[in-house]
Specification:
Largest sheet: 2 strands, parallel
Number of helices: 5
Strand content: under 5%
Helix content: over 70%
Order of helices and strands: HEHHEHH
Shape: elongated
Strand order of the largest sheet: 1-2
Number of strands: 2
Distance between the termini: 48 Å
Structural class: mainly alpha
Length: about 150
């Protein structure tokens, strides 16, 4: 089951990073769609925290350790860096969507890698991927111009 850890550990780190940066975005978003985006970002943070917990607990339940300490997250964060400070909702959403895209890529690698070694853990990754895609859709819809 060591291979499971290899694929789920990056998912945990990506979800932890998404939760932290999502909260940063939540606090600093501005513009005419403030309330809707502010509330969506809070939901994204809640989901990311739950997904991190789901992947971490699956790993630990298999008797494998998980390292999501702050220094590990800082060293291995797989998401693009977010700008600091206040931003209009459009540029803020673009950054969060880019982070979601990177997180989805990490999760999809886990789905593929777990296919041959641990189907139950693959189910966990599939569940996370489904939720992230929906969160991405809800946020990206605010960028539509037609």
């Amino acid at each position: 089951m060591n291979g499971t850890q290899q694929f789920l550990a990056p998912v945990v780190l990506a979800m932890q990073a998404l939760a932290i940066d999502g909260k940063q975005a939540h606090w600093h978003v501005r513009g005419e769609n403030f309330i809707a985006v502010h509330e969506l970002l809070d939901k994204l943070v809640d989901h990311a925290r739950a997904y991190a917990d789901l992947a971490a607990e699956r790993t630990v339940a298999l008797g494998l350790p998980i390292d999501a300490r702050l220094q590990t997250l800082a060293a291995k964060n797989p998401l693009p860096q977010m700008k600091d400070g206040f931003q209009n909702y459009g540029p803020m959403i673009q950054q969060v969507v880019a982070q979601l895209d990177a997180a989805i890529a990490v999760v999809r690698r886990a789905v593929e890698g777990l296919d041959d070694i641990d189907l139950n853990s693959q189910d966990v990754a599939i569940e996370i991927e489904r939720g992230l895609v929906e969160d991405r859709w809800f946020l990206a819809a605010h960028l539509a111009t037609d």
